[in-house]
Amino acid sequence: MKQSLKILVSNRALPTKEIGSWTTRLSQLNSNIDLFDYILSPSCYNEKYLDCRKRKFITWRKEVRTLNLKYWVARDYIKRIKYLAKTANKISVVVMDDIHLLEALTLTKNSYKCPLEIIFSFHGFEVDLKKDVLSRIDKILFLSHKGSEFNKQKYSNFFPETVVVGNGVDSSTFFPLEEKEFYKQRQEYNYLENDEILIWVANDRPKKGIQLFYQVIEILLKEIPTLKVIIIGSDRVYNHPRVNNIGRISNKDVAKYLKISNYYMFTTFYQEGFGLSMIEALKCGNAVIASSRGAIVEVLNGLDNVYLIEKINDPEKWIEAFNLARKDTNFGKIRPNKILTDQIWDYKNWERKFVNAINGD
Question: Kind and range of the H or E element at 199?
Answer without folding.
Answer: strand 196-201
